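Input (structure):
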């Protein structure tokens, strides 16, 4: 009997197709890394795509925030080809703070698995500011942007760098559409100190075997975070690009203390909601 063609693969026109058809087909993602900016999303994507059962889109498609009007077929066309046994993954960290994203993703598939990489919101904000500063050296100081009134300790929650770290607030929008069992939270800190442990949990969440283990990582002292040793398809070690691991701007410790106070109630609410203590206090 002829070999069964994988489902979703179009039949070659006119019987004998020239050359073999490319294996697999483009599928909408079953898992999306939805956040958060400067949390460690690129690392999670680079680490998970080492897995033979995962195929990932390398660039951020921004479909559910900026390109939604292009339609699902456009979105699908961007995806890598997969076999039936493989999972398609994409990452766009701005989805987490996009009001419409949960509903839009739910409308694509209510079974979508969501991954959120979180990190101490104060450190995250400083990292965010550092990134912006490298592109626009003329912006105001971190302190100036963080407060509406510093002496009164009034934090400016309209500044994106501050707003993103209010995880408990953003999470509420997602919980209106998805149960917590479909959302996996990765600790950005543990991703650095124990990448194999954190990636083990990600693989469990995705329902794939634990292939990525500590054998895959080594710690790069210059960068200050783990890099991949050689992978099956790639004989040389791989670290994240030059833009990763920038030296953060020095911030007045008093400012940091005020921001820690600001975030504390949000952090506690977040820990209680997800049932996980990220130890940011």
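Output (sequence):
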């Amino acid at each position: 009997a002829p070999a069964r063609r994988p489902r979703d693969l179009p039949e070659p026109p006119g019987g004998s197709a020239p050359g073999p058809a490319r294996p697999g087909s483009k599928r909408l993602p079953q898992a999306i890394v939805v956040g958060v900016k400067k949390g460690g999303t690129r690392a999670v994507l680079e680490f998970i795509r080492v897995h033979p059962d995962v195929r990932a889109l390398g660039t951020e498609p921004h479909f559910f925030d900026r390109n939604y009007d292009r339609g699902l077929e456009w979105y699908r066309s961007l995806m890598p080809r997969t076999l039936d046994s493989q999972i398609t993954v994409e990452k766009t960290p701005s989805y987490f703070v996009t009001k419409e994203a949960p509903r839009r993703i739910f409308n694509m598939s209510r079974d979508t698995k969501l991954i959120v990489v979180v990190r101490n919101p104060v450190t995250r904000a400083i990292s965010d500011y550092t990134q912006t500063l490298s592109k626009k050296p003329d912006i105001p100081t971190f302190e100036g942007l963080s407060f509406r009134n510093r002496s009164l300790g009034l934090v400016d929650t309209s500044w994106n760098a501050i707003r993103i770290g209010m995880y408990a607030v953003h999470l509420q929008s997602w919980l209106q559409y998805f149960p917590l069992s479909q959302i996996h939270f990765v600790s950005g800190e543990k991703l650095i100190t124990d990448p194999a442990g954190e990636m083990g949990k990600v693989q469990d969440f995705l329902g794939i075997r634990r292939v990525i283990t500590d054998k895959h990582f080594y710690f790069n002292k210059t960068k200050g975070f783990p890099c991949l040793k050689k992978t099956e398809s790639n004989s040389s070690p791989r670290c994240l690009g030059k833009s990763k691991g920038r030296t953060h701007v020095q911030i007045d410790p008093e400012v940091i203390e005020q921001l820690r106070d600001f975030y504390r109630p949000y952090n506690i609410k977040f820990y209680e909601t997800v049932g996980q203590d990220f130890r940011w206090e």
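Notes: The mean pLDDT is 91. The first strand starts at residue 25 and ends at 26.
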